[in-house]
Amino acid sequence: MFSRHLLPQLAEELQFSSAVALLGPRQVGKTTLALEVAKAVPSLYLDLESERDRFKLAQPELYLADHLDKLVIFDEVHRAPGLFPVLRGLIDEARRKGRRAGQYLLLGSASLDLLQQSGETLAGRIAYLELAPLDVTEVGGELLDTLWLRGGFPDSVTAASTARSLRWRLNFIRTYLERDIPQFGPRIAAEMLRRFWTMLAHHQGGLLNVAQLARNLGVDAKTAQSYIDLLCDLLLVRRLPPWHTNIGKRLVKSPKVYVRDSGLVHALLDIETKETLLSHPVVGASWEGFVIENLLSCTSDSVQAYFYRTSGGAEIDLLLVWPGNVLWAIEIKRSLMPKVERGFHAACDDLQPARKLVVYPGTEAYPLGNDVQAVSLEGLCREITAKS
Q: At 257, which helix (H) or strand (E)?
């Protein structure tokens, strides 16, 4: 089992919140993490994809009233949307009896239905955490290239061979398209959505142009936008927003779009080996998305992420905004001898960030001049984790 750095945060939230929702894509390790944290307290695990466990909740008020002294874990909670009003009543009843925390842990594979349902009925009673795929601090820097190639899903990282890892990811994509996605949204043809997902992989790290994607796919812009929204809500795609502030420059206003897991990018593009990846046009964008996801998996909710680009060519790949409006400008390079472009310096002159960093594939940290420092991905992830 990998040591997940979200574990202590999850345990802490359960000490202060009546209910905690742990969100993340399927197979990312939510159940394993939940069962690990449950070892410390009396607990009950219910898998709502199991017909037997759903039958236990035929009359949820009666069943759950017998387990008010336990941490009850609901896996794939979106399968029981009628459960949330019941939980509200049970939480309020337990509060009147003096128990104010650690009652329910809700595991969900998407944010959209879960947030809508719980937002209406559990406001003030629930905390949200997101479990991302494995990052470099959890796997170890010695497996950096393996993590980049295979992505962060535990079964993909630990597969017996590169070919088995790719097969697992292709099966994962097929399962999402044919079984999971229809549970969350209107019926969408699996082949159509796969083509759209593949288009996003080819466009990794590019500016989002919904109209162009719609034309390429042969659908209207509203339909293409709904596909983007769905994949973002399923925590499979990220829209990185542009930094917007009044600095007297013409700023790019479209978000960047990334398939969040690098292993899924490579599976969608049929890239099996590192050698194939290094010769593929997506290599730079794939590394950029991989670095961004690793860094953001280590930040707290108080840190906001953007990119910065002006029409004049000034650009910052990732801009972290810490509390107090403290800016970190991060450039991402695949080279072992990174060189900072003029556009990065121009952007830093515009924003005056507190730190200027270049993330590269090496292991040492060293200055590059003009207050810019080259750092390893693992080193920066560990620093962000400690600071967050």
A: strand 256-259
